[in-house]
User: Fold this.
Amino acid sequence: MPMNVDWNALGIVAGVGIASTVVLVALFCVGIAAWGRREAGSGGAAALTGAVSCFALCAAGVLYGLYLIVPQLHG
Assistant:
């Protein structure tokens, strides 16, 4: 029995996966940099707010990915 692969859909899934990985890693790096600025004393409350915001966005992205993967969560 021949197997048919929808290469367009596979490419879209791969592209979205790579793009979301890059965005999440970049957000986490910005969060770490902001946290380091705060620890060094040059950022103050703005650096803390930025770091916490970046970490919250990373957590939201990971939780949304888990929501998409686990069918019991949305069915």
